[in-house]
Amino acid sequence: MEKLAINGGTPVRSEKIYYGRQWINQEDVDAVSKALVGDLITCGPQVEALEKKLCEVTKAKYAVAVCNGTAALHCACIAAGIGPGDEVITTPLTFAASANCAVYVGATPVFADVDPETYNISPESIEAHITDKTKAVVAVDFTGQAVEHEKIREICNKHGILFIVDAAHAIGTKYKGQPEGSLADMTCFSFHPVKTVTAGEGGAITTNDPKLYRKLHLASQHGIVRNPDEFDEEPEGPWVYEMQELGFNYRMTDFQAALLISQLNRLPEFSARRKEIVKKYDEAFSKIPEIFVQKEIPESDTTRHLYIIQLKLDMLTCTRREFFDALSAENVQPQVHYVPVYYFPFYKKRGYNKGLCPVAESIYKGIMSIPLYPMMTDADVSDVIAAVEKVVAAYRK
Q1: Mind giving me the DSSP string for 312-352?
Q2: In whole angstroms, how large is the CA radius of gyration of the chain?
Q3: Which residues contact 10 (CB under 8 A, 6 or more apart)?
Q4: What digits encode the pLDDT tens for the residues 77-112?
Q5: Shortest CA distance to 81 belongs to which of 164, 154, 167?
Q6: Which of 78, 146, 213, 290 could form a disulfide with 300 if both were Cys (CB 3.0 to 4.6 A apart)?
Q7: Alpha-helical regions (H) of the chain
Q8: DSSP state of 176
């Protein structure tokens, strides 16, 4: 049953607006159409062109395009040589794939807590959770803000572990002027429709290490090699290929790659518009005592994927659910990112319990994501702000 607007009045908006959506224009459509009538619609020239484009955007030496962001994380764990008996440190305030990728290779996820102001994984908590079993850190650029690269890199170098960044939210973000994708040992991206740029579904891993690049390539393409110069044995004929490792079919199609190339050409436009909207939100919500505005480290020039408000529930007469429903009734549909990963039944069955990361759990109780995407008009942005202000006023103590 549809909820009524606050006090039974007229909603701020007549049409529902959601937290994210893609922006597909005619150039995108034309790019896909051209790829579809080409000779190859998978394993073709567009994927190779996309990988070159990703290297240009991220300044990484190598890129491997895959079918989604989860596949990217899985390949990164394979390339890192992570396996049974190993531990991988990550954050609980993320999509499940950031931890699941460790489970896929038989390793154990270890959850480090987050910074109470930025919501990103805390370097101090990473350090506290390192053991002789730790093989890698999967740090997440939560909402698009870069993690504290220098501090995490120092920790990883000190302990001889790999630094993997889950940058599913962060294409276009820079840390100290360097694009995300060129800083960690491996960086994983997602191109789901609500992300800054999309391939429909899609992902990629970037790296500067040629050995990791080769492992990533093998992991994503059945472990198969087609170049005779790389064969272990002399080929009988031109039809021969070798499966040298156990890999997966994580390939991206050429028409997805064509769409993503077109979208990446618009990344500066998308990034600029997201920053404009974030600035408007920050200015508006910083004036509302009942809302905490996520902080950013000065090193991060952020292309924000999500805009999250954190309710100070002790200053309101409602629950988070009541605020959520009231905002939805104003036709501004929020979402929550994310339920702490170890709250899920799968992880509970594996012995994870609440209380592991008290800061992340406290943050989760009051957060919700509000609309943020480049197609939003200034009127849309004003409506979202007005709806939040209206609901806060109705529940203010």
Answers
A1: -GGGBSS-HHHHHHHHHHTTB--B-----GGGSHHHHHTT-
A2: 22
A3: none
A4: 999 999 999 999 999 999 999 999 999 999 999 999
A5: 164
A6: 146
A7: 26-36, 45-58, 69-79, 97-104, 123-129, 149-159, 210-220, 254-264, 267-285, 320-329, 345-349, 358-364, 378-395
A8: T
For 295, phi then psi, to 5°, come to -90, 160
d(CA 20, CA 375): 9
- State the chain's maximal CA–CA distance in angstroms: 80
Among 324, 306, 66, which residue's Cα sits nearest to residue 186? 66
The pLDDT confidence band at residue 1, using thresholds 50, 70 and 90, is very low
Q: Using CA atoms, how far apart are residues 54 and 105, in angstroms rounded to an integer?
A: 27
Cα 129 from chain centroid (whole Å): 23
- Distance in angstroms (rounded) separating the CA atoms of residues 145 and 300: 6
Q: Which two tokens stand for residue 359?
A: 């800061």
Q: What is the pLDDT of residue 191?
A: 98
Q: Which helix (H) or strand (E) holds 63?
A: strand 62-66
Can you give the pLDDT at residue 4?
64
Instruction: Domain 26-264: give its CATH code.
Output: 3.40.640.10
Centre a 10 Å sphere on the Cβ of residue 277 and count the other Cβ atoms it contains. 20
d(CA 32, CA 302): 29
Q: What residue spans define the domains of the chain? A: 6-14+267-395, 26-264
Peptide bond preceding 338 in cis form (omega within 30 of 0): yes
3-class DSSP assignment, residue 67? coil
Instruction: Answer positive or negative: Cα dihedral of 107, 113, 114, 115.
Output: negative
Is the separation of the CB atoms in 330 and 12 below 8 Å?
yes
28-65 confidence digits (pLDDT tens)? 999 999 999 999 999 899 999 999 999 999 999 999 99
Neighbours of 256 (CB within 10 A): 25
Rounded CA gap, 99 and 304, in Å?
22
Average pLDDT over residues 367-393: 98
Please report where in the chains the tokens 């292309």 appear, as a residue.
303
**pLDDT recorded at residue 323:** 98
Residue 186: which of 161, 146, 213 has the closest Cα? Answer: 213
Token pair in block for residue 240? 């021969």
CB atoms within 10 A of CB 96: 17
Q: What does the DSSP 8-state code read for residue 143?
A: G
